[in-house]
Amino acid sequence: MTDTAQRVSRAAALLAEQDIDAALETISEAARRDPNSPQAAFGHAQIAFEAWQPAAALFERAAALLPGQPDLIRNRALALAAESADDQAEALLESVLAQHPGWLDGHRTLCAMRITRGETEDWDRSYAAAAAREPVNTAVRLSWFQQHATRKDWTAARAVLAGAEQACAPSQGLALSALFLIAESGEGIPDFGPFAALADPGTDLCHVRYLLRTSQPEAALAVAQRHLGGAQARMFWPYAGLCWRLLGDPQAGWLDGDRLHAAAVDLDFTPQELADLAEALRRLHRMKAPYPEQSVRGGTQTDRQLFFHPDPAIRLARDKVLAAVADFAAALPHEPGHPLLERGSSTLRFAGSWSVRLAGAGFHASHTHVRGWISSACYVSLPKPDQLGAPPAGWLSLGSPPPELGLDLGPLRQIEPKPGRLALFGSTLWHATEPFAAGERLTFAFDIAPPR
Predict the structure, then answer these.
(1) Residue 127 to residues 68, 148, 282, 289: CA-CA distances in angstroms?
(2) A Pfam family name for this chain (predicted)?
């Protein structure tokens, strides 16, 4: 292995260990020593971007050494947007899509940019142009459908699917999309029978949600249990918990805890540390709207791994929460086969970290985190008491199911927000934020990765 390859490999290992500073230093040195190495150039650009450093020029350099790499083009566009060059980012993606209209990742990235910039109409125009150029490209039309389905815009999703069914040959993808539309929109009775043998996690999850929505918890549980021992178990544990609660099964208490596996910890931030942290986080909220797949309503969420940011206030917050999580995890009982209580011996790692800034009437829709083991919310700045509204306005609700399922189940616990308070809970536990009247609610959150 060459010296450059060794440095690139070492940088990747440091990044996996979440030592972002050492990873950036190592890959920067590799790119400096071997400026014509495509691998070092790409790695330098990528790690610099993840470290919240200017990276658009680095990606441009890497693109010259690795022409035509889709991931590199997409990430260069993301870096341009992060550096407030939104028009350049969109132009880059549009130019590539004009030559390669079937590039699905390019369409998804471009749509997300337009939505988070605040566009509310015609944000999906790249898909429309691609479908006009390649009318029988089923993959493009299904990806377009998924964009609207994620936003629960059933009228638009239905129109896209109708166009696909008219232009394209019948396929399993089209049939499953039609099934999903009927089940999730509530406008008909879906027939899951022909797809039962697939044992497809996405289809089965849709089936579980439909059965819960139509008051069939026993049948929903039977479908969910097929996956509780498999690779996609974290998608299904939250729904199994709802089924057990509806059926009065004591396994509901086993899953979520009796008492609930959750904690509220008041961290030892000083008022000045919280003020510094709030200022640092506000600078990162450059978008005007949330990503459509996120739970945020009436606010924005940062991109990239928050705790990779070099700001001292953010690094201090990271250190404080890691200590609190270690205490929380150590106090949990150990139980094999449980999604939270089965512990490994690996070091705590973040599966993600981010900040959310909600404005008046903002909230989080009820959701879970399939990539996490322990999830969180930490309050940095809150509206004044007369702005929040009557309790539980702005509080964290644990255990509340998604309202679109129409279940008669309330929260298992509600946590009052206070500056510096950290809420910790299992990632398979449903959680939401109650709407509030006015003001700013600034938080950060993270997922701890499942232990190895």
Answers:
(1) 21, 11, 33, 21
(2) 2OG-FeII_Oxy_5
CATH code of residue 334: 2.60.120.620
Q: Assess whether 199 and 103 both reside in one domain.
A: no
User: Cβ of 137: how many Cβ atoms within 10 Å?
Assistant: 18
The answer to whether 417 and 222 are in contact (CB under 8 A) is no
Contact (CB, 8 A) for 291 and 120? no
The whole-model pTM stands at: 0.94
Q: Are 128 and 156 in contact (CB under 8 A)?
A: no
Question: Which pLDDT tens digit goes with each residue over 312-366?
Answer: 999 999 999 999 999 999 999 999 999 999 987 778 999 999 999 988 777 678 9
Last residue of a domain, one of 228, 256, 284: 256
Instruction: For residues 424 and 298, give the distance between their C-alpha atoms in angstroms, rounded to a whole number.
Output: 23
pLDDT digits (tens, 9 = 90+) for 341-355: 998 777 899 999 999
Classify residue 43: in a domain, yes or no: yes
- Listed in sequence order, the residues at least 6 apart from 117 whose beta carbon sits closer than 8 Å to its beta carbon are 86, 287, 288, 289
